[in-house]
Amino acid sequence: MTKDIKAQPAPEHLVSKFKLQTSKEVDFFLPVNKGSNAKVGHAKELTAETPKLFQPLEITPGFTLSNRIGVSPMCTYSAPSSGSEIGNPTQFHQTHYGSFALRGSGLIIVESTAVAPNGRLSPEDVGIWNDEQAKAWRSVVQFAHSQGVKIGIQLGHGGRKASGIPPADHLQFGIDSSLGGWSDVKGAVVAPSALPFNPDPEVNLQGYVTPTALTTDQVEETVELFGAAAKRAYEIAGFDFVEIHGAHGYLINEFLSASSNKRTDQYGGSFENRIRFLLEIVDAVKSETHPTFLRISADELTPSDPDAWTIEDSVKLAHVLVERGGVHVIDVSSGANNPHAERRPSHQGFQVPYAKALKAAVGDKIQIAAVGGFVDGEFANKVVENGEADIVLVGKTLLKNPGLPWVWADQLGVKINVGRPLEWPYYHPAWKF
């Protein structure tokens, strides 16, 4: 006969050790890591020898990243373009951004999100110009928070490059109301001046229309739109920070550059006037409890145009931002405001020299984020170890592999926290007690 075996209560020390801890941020069962350093992306054992890429970074008091790797803002063109849910993020966005939150990124910057309907880069862009859109972002934010990951939203306005085709040939083709766009609606496509993105009819086949120049009152109203969007992002959606999109030839970039800004009021002419729109937006969105990021195109890459924005202008702007305060991270990209810009080979780190120049200008007064084709962990680590930038933002490579920070950690000999449901096959518990 076999002897009956009765279940015995587990020893108390095992119950406390192995009882699952679940997230309070989401409304479904989700096991999460335990402990004060349990955030996804945080090194499991942090020492003086830990590569700098995987050392925490304090942006402001109480706002610390678990590592220096971030998800660069990348449009997905996946929101409803009409109806009551126009511009709303969907389940796709929760799945998309959730894949990064589980796998080691220290921060996530959500794609360019329009502050007004006519500010969308395409009809399928996400928005945050109303409260319902902000509410729809909550689930995305809550999931990131369940993993301890900081998540922010990029606020943008397309200016003269709004109402474009998503995403192929995006810099060449504008679309009208027959395809859900608004390029044929009088006064809907706006800019600092009535200058089309590309006036060359042989290149700009059916492309961007001549925009309507904003009146001075409309400029001030647009500043208020950014402020209202930031308030929704914080108070309704729960984002940790906002990033102002001042790059890539969109509205703010158009004001900065004398090649696209021919105004004669207080928002045009001198350098000080051309940066006024941006500075007023910084004042409108800044928060005492949340850091503000700013993406800029550090150089217009058009040396043939004496009015083009240059790296020297960006350094000058950075000094102004240091003096005024309100910006905590500058995200350094380049180009896209001039159709005749020089084309450069996009090798790994090709944008880093611009980040390095700005880092040299601001020192430790503002954190600098570098972008540009990062694929290798050792290369990315050298960028931060050498003081060329404080943060590395990754785009396309993360789209292909959301677990890239985890791969880089392996390359650099670091064990990091990832989502609890995913990590156990790699960091197996010891079978002894």
TrEMBL record:
Alphabetized UniProt keyword annotations: Flavoprotein, FMN, NADP, Oxidoreductase
Source domain of life: Eukaryota
Cofactor(s) annotated in UniProt: FMN
Entry-linked Gene3D superfamilies: Aldolase class I
SUPFAM superfamilies documented for this protein: FMN-linked oxidoreductases
Domain NADH:flavin oxidoreductase/NADH oxidase N-terminal: 52-405
GO MF, one example: FMN binding
Alphabetical list of InterPro entries matching this protein: Aldolase_TIM, OxRdtase_FMN_N, YqjM-like
PANTHER family: NADPH DEHYDROGENASE C23G7.10C-RELATED
Name of the protein in question: NADH:flavin oxidoreductase/NADH oxidase N-terminal domain-containing protein
Species this chain originates from: Wickerhamomyces pijperi
